[in-house]
Here is the input.
Amino acid sequence: MIGSFRYRPATGAHDPLHSRALVLDDGTETVAIAVVDSCYIPRETVDAAKRLAHAETGIPTDRVLIAATHTHTAPPPAPGVGLRGPEPEQDTRNEQRYTRQLIDGIAASIAGAFERLEPAEIGWARTELPDEVFNRRWFMKEGTIPADPFGGTTDRVRMNPPAASPDLVRPSGPVDPEAAVLSIRTAAKKPLAVLANYSLHYVGNIPAGLVSADYFGEFSLAIASRLDAGERFVGMLSNGTSGNINNIDFSKPRSRREPFEQVRKVAGKLADAVAKAVAGIEYRPDASLAMEQVELALARRKPTRPILEQSRTVLQGVRPSELTRRHIYAQRAIDLHDGPDSVSVVLQAIRISDLGIAALPFETFVETGLAIKRDSPLQATFVISLANGAEGYLPTPEHHVLGGYETWLGTSRVEAQASEKIREQLLAALHKVATGEN
Here is the structure.
């Protein structure tokens, strides 16, 4: 399983992993949205699923949004992205089989939703759940932040610091407490689907070795229960802009929780808030759709010559099963050096009546999400992260200056101005779907 800096073979599954899909058709435009229980999904895997879904449904690939939830307890989504264990060849074979299952499953979920299209009503709402989101990047007292994986000591903030530490100064940014809700019901006014969006990284506290969809999967069950929905109902929770947000209040001592206790607590509270919001939605049967997809070229970050030479030295004679965080970042630096100078990323904007959805393939900082919501031309907008690829963290330029885990070379793989360029492109795409103008 991926989601940490150590080799974690799965020994069982606490709950199943799903691809949950929603297909909307207004008679002119058809749009598919799939939310997948995975830590992330590389673009090659996403594109393969889109091509297969297109072959089965006819939906154009540029009208399909596929996003990972970011559970940290799921298998590698493609061969070569996980850490190798004592039997690397067996790991590779397992990864190849799982990747095939993942691609087929995503496409099958979209095809299944397409096959079950029926007249429906749609509406949206916004609510808030502020007490389960905390900024995880903290300013610390001078001299208390450990060195980065390359030995650097310029970080001014620390990710996930010791809770209630006397060295804490203040969080380095805001949070987004909003839970956005898109709700669909049948013509007979029965719940058919809910797509929610919340900017919380993941919850965790899952026993070692257990596969789990984390609170994203638990929410899907909880919202179905809260709405007293039937078997055909699909509840979906997408990850918002949570690159610097998690579920830990570092200003206080951490209390002990039983396994899955916090997962159930957060999912239940979110389901309660979403269900209450759904009850107040004004539905309409005639909502129009529009979607715009653009590709943006971004420069890849490259290691300096000293870091490159240091990285090559660090990796000499190290076996895959012995990798530490220092070795992993050394390999990431070498990969960036050897790789292309730029990458093309997929950005999408969807309009559903007067609701906007923006999508980007990064673990996005909350500041970027708040700015897109603020400046969107639509009445309401939410942002889906880790969509249509996985290009690492997306700090703002200001956070690049502060340093910290999310900005390290290999954690963040694109230019420091990337968030500004992406925000500009997404707002332009939202303007186009809102007005129909170029």
